[in-house]
Amino acid sequence: MSTFLASLRGEKVNRFPVWLMRQAGRYMKAYRRLRSKVNTFLEFCSNVDLAVEVTLLPERILGIDALILFSDILVPLLPLGVKVEFKPKPFLKSPPIEELKEFDQAKVDFVFETIRKVKEKSELPLIGFAGAPFTLGAYIVEGQTSREFLNIRKLYHSDREKFNLLMEKLTEMTEEYLSAQISAGVDAVQLFDSWAFVLSPSAFKEYFNHLRRLMESLKRKHPEVPIIYFFRGSGHLFETAKDLPADALSVDWTIDIEKPLKVLSTKALQGNLDPALLYADREVIEREVTNFLQKVVNYRKTLFVFNLGHGLSPDMEEEKVKFLVEVVKRFKL
Amino acid sequence: MSTFLASLRGEKVNRFPVWLMRQAGRYMKAYRRLRSKVNTFLEFCSNVDLAVEVTLLPERILGIDALILFSDILVPLLPLGVKVEFKPKPFLKSPPIEELKEFDQAKVDFVFETIRKVKEKSELPLIGFAGAPFTLGAYIVEGQTSREFLNIRKLYHSDREKFNLLMEKLTEMTEEYLSAQISAGVDAVQLFDSWAFVLSPSAFKEYFNHLRRLMESLKRKHPEVPIIYFFRGSGHLFETAKDLPADALSVDWTIDIEKPLKVLSTKALQGNLDPALLYADREVIEREVTNFLQKVVNYRKTLFVFNLGHGLSPDMEEEKVKFLVEVVKRFKL
């Protein structure tokens, strides 16, 4: 079995597995070359041949231990009737929450087709993914990225019923979407809750129930497929998130890794250095990553996947990213 | 003595004092009327008569327990040679860090003049303020507001020496600036660390030393003036921030208020409901605020100041803000 899946399942591994969020991204020359073949970002995601190629890039270039489907968390909103445009940041136009359409997976079949083709071409485990309901809801209500996501917080405080209706609709869609990805062949799924950090601990506790239902339902259908929950704001939300029925929690850099290491014994952890570390010299990267892994190994020798606390940025150096992966792989258990 | 200062000092009060960040702001009709008298936001801040009037507005309109100087945290960057423009969001052009000028308080004399005039016109305690060094540094390095503040994190990881030089320069300036505000008559000072939330716990620990020096130096010169430290990211930074030599910690909504209430016995607390609560119905506001204050009173009957976890937003209703203040003032100890 792959190091990635073995470590997620708590089996013995010789080294910690590593993959990186946005590992196939604009920082990579080969990615930019492929990107230039089509006009819009949505074409890029929905062109199966290109999406397959992009998904596979990090295997050859970085030597990571898992691939992640190349797509965007906003893709499954299209069948709901949400209009999405990337300029290059996303702008959304959504019908009123009550009028969001039922999810029709046939409309995003290119995603499942991409998964099937990647599985034919690589033996690496493939991670499927979806945005978590809160993050998708924040995009829908806000219409774009935002620093504060005030409008979804407004909805939460001013109309709890409608907020919960939105979360329910998105939970249902996400469950179907991830199930279909699993049926198409992904080996694990990751939920991205990139904007969860704007939630107070008590608001997150309420939202928790939607997440739990989503995960429980997936687990019932696909008990063998690990669910990874990535959430920004790990520092203040971990206390609640730790009780989710996920197989792994992927934490951002707002939490000292020792805290979850101390508390969680049966769940895997993924994370969590600040991606900005990649701007440092190789010497600093090597020292910081090694010290970090040394901390981890004081607590566990499995149930850990190295990743950063968030995605890679376009201006990062490909060579440095490669070096980071090497440092992690060199660290023997 | 005023309820505000008494509570900050741990003396007996009949009710918890209340003021709100951005209490004089665009949500307020009278503010918008005054704002329309000048072209740029910087003119608005530097016109002493207008700044005095704006500072005083919330006394009459809201009935809060403290005034806060009307100005902007970017104002003291002007004498350092930083160019600031509001369109309406701030855009900055800064010389290289090594070439930032020495702070010359004469160049922002309008701030001290505003303070002196406000003190002549009102008996309410007046809060002076400044941006905390990290938040100012983030603005300088980024050149504008940002969701991720990746560039200051980049500086932190790639050139620690230069990062610390920037923090030292800003610490020195801020110390002088707040000292001068105190000499001009403010009764308390608040440091705004609005972007601290992008820091990891370990990066915050390093930055902590700059904050400590700043506060210790102010305390030596003005032992009687309370220092309030407001920091976003309270959920993951509180563990370290609690040891700062501030008189009060002003926390955002990423922390359940019971946590600092349990831990801090001699420091005052200020905060911390999500400002988005103001979009809710009066009924909800009243219930949430009352439940919140009930929690506080289980731990303490002084050393507490009601505020929100962040500033008010332009689209909030003046009447609701007024109602919020009433609810807090009605809650007797």
Automatic annotation (TrEMBL), chains A, B:
GO biological process: protoporphyrinogen IX biosynthetic process
Record domain Uroporphyrinogen decarboxylase (URO-D): where: 17-26, 127-143
Keyword Metal-binding applies: no
Catalytic activity: uroporphyrinogen III + 4 H(+) = coproporphyrinogen III + 4 CO2
Enzyme's top EC category: lyase
Pathway(s) the chain acts in: Porphyrin-containing compound metabolism; protoporphyrin-IX biosynthesis; coproporphyrinogen-III from 5-aminolevulinate: step 4/4
Positions of substrate binding: 22-26, 72, 139, 194, 310
GO terms under cellular component: cytosol
The protein's Enzyme Commission number: 4.1.1.37
Subcellular location: Cytoplasm
Function: Catalyzes the decarboxylation of four acetate groups of uroporphyrinogen-III to yield coproporphyrinogen-III.
Family note: Belongs to the uroporphyrinogen decarboxylase family.
Protein name: Uroporphyrinogen decarboxylase
